[in-house]
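Illustration: PH domain-containing protein.
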Amino acid sequence: MKQAYRSKFAFVLGWVWVAFVALNVWDLIARYNGKPSLVALAVLAALTALVYVIALRPVTLFTEDALVGRNPLRTTVLPWAAIDEVTVSHSINVHHGDGQLLRLWTPVSTARERAKAQRRGAAAAAPRRGRLRTEPVLSKAEQAAQEAFAGKTHADWVGEQITDRAESARRRAQEAAPVRVRWAYDSLAVVAVAVALLVAAIVG
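Result:
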């Protein structure tokens, strides 16, 4: 079973933009008036290409056999047993092979999210004083989830899941398949259409 991790905010915002562009394209085609409409179409195409490449395409996939990192212009299929180390800063950095690095575009850890996670961790570690509690009592499952996420961002948690899967693959003595890297032909096609419209707007 596949697990997908992406920026939900960027994904939703991206599709809202696509819907907005679709309405505007229909209006521009219905009221086409020459070069001004062509220029507007070219600008919308360029912005849509940017939104697709940055907001809609990036996703981190967990499959049974490999970690799949879909970045703006490339897709990397990295077998679990080939992963050497995982570090998390602003992004999740997966080290493999002879010093090679896969930097995942999603999920990311912003400074605001990390500061919030640190405050949450400090609050969870603080001793409770007094007999009276004003907070609701959490169930065991909720307490376990709170402890698991204390002081961690979503990116930290996903990084730990990648590490766990890589270690599990090595314990099973799973043979590391070759790492596969391929160009994102969907992104290249979207960019090519945007460039073609820009050229047509400039020449026309």
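Reading the tokens back as a structure: The first strand starts at residue 3 and ends at 5.
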